[in-house]
Amino acid sequence: MPVMFKESEIVCGYRILKCLGKGGFSQIYKASAPDGNTVILKFPDLSFISDPATYERFRREFAIGQKLNHPAIPRARDLVESSDGLFLVLNYIEGKSLRAFISDNAPLTLNEALLIADQLVEAVDYLHAHGVCHRDLKPENIIIGPNGRLHIIDFGSSLLEGSRRVTWRFGSDTFGTPDYMAPEQIQGKRGDVRTDVYALGIILYELLTGTVPFHGDNALSVMNQHLTAIPISPHKLQPSIPLEIEAIILKSIRRNPDERYQFASELLNDLKHFSDIDLSQFPKDPELKVTSMLTDRQIWIGTFLIFIVFLILTAFIALVTNLMQH
């Protein structure tokens, strides 16, 4: 059950202006701060508020927002605990989501896509250099400001170097969005900077082709394809895509993280100098070797376990919501 506040309602001195939507585990509001600035208020879903890990994740997101100083990263202003509940206060970013931009404009020209990709990869490289792995990079979590500047938002699933592991009692470490999830995330591993590289590769694929590489009728189908399927060549979908850019994309989304770019800085360097790269250093068909990290039996067992976790989580949330309504 989400936290619900009405327009113009005052919460700890913040005046609610508009509900911006509900995330995976939170409700987001646009609000006016006591100093007159426009801010974002992020409340955890009431279904999870009693879980200590929820507080820890909000505390970690606040710490990340305080630690980083980059134009692409919104500043965290406060972490408030009161009778109205726990919530984060973040700087408000004006603009539209990259998802909306892709829907309106993709596939992009190479120059348009690289202008976005260069900014995005540079910002992610900054995160990694400061010990932060986002783990949920997707167009919905990227805002394009009025001046064309990109902003990365929603660090609720992020890892901060040196922080303790958080066990969320309502689920597992399988955070992310199916279209952009790296295979290791689907396997329940924490992920690392190469997990973000994978998502960056998927986003670049989508910018240039207008579609993501893996499709399915449901989340489980898409996740299974990340583990087993061969992506369609971007160049086949859009012949104008240079083979060097295709090679960069396919290296970024290799199933085995050891075969991807090991750092965002390496990806950024190749994007900036793609015309100079040696294609002979890239496998012709990276996944055709079918050197899957899993056996067929492991894949089916993993998919079945993910399905069971989803069923349990859905049933639990429904039960909690029903009890709170009564």
Describe the structure.
The protein is α+β, with helices and mostly antiparallel strands and 326 residues long. It has two domains: 82 residues, 2-Layer Sandwich (Phosphorylase Kinase, domain 1), CATH 3.30.200.20; 211 residues, Orthogonal Bundle (Transferase(Phosphotransferase), domain 1). It is 39% helix and 16% strand. The chain has ten helices and eleven strands. It has a six-stranded antiparallel sheet with strand order 1-2-3-4-6-5, covered by helices on one side. The longest helix has 30 residues.
Give a quick set of tags describing it.
326 residues; alpha+beta; Phosphorylase Kinase, domain 1; three-stranded antiparallel β-sheet; 11 strands; 39% helix
What name is given to the CATH topology of the largest domain?
Answer: Transferase(Phosphotransferase), domain 1
What is the C-level CATH assignment of the largest domain?
Mainly Alpha
Which H/E pattern describes the elements? EEEEHEEEHHEEEEHHHHHHH
The number of strands is 11
Q: What class, by secondary structure content?
A: alpha+beta
The CATH architecture of the largest domain can be named as Orthogonal Bundle
Helix content: 25-40%
Separation of the first and last Cα atoms:
12 Å
The radius of gyration computed from the alpha-carbon positions, rounded to a whole number of angstroms, is 20 Å
Question: Which ranges are low-confidence, i.e. pLDDT below 50, for 5 or more consecutive residues?
Answer: 167-174, 288-295
User: What form results from the Cα inertia axes?
Assistant: globular
Oligomeric form: single chain
Task: Tally the structural domains.
Answer: 2
Mean pLDDT: 86
CATH homologous superfamily grouping of the largest domain: Transferase(Phosphotransferase) domain 1
Largest sheet: 6 strands, antiparallel
The tally of helices reads 10
Strand content: 15-25%
Q: Taking strands numbered 1, 2, ... along the chain, how are they ordered across the largest sheet?
A: 1-2-3-4-6-5
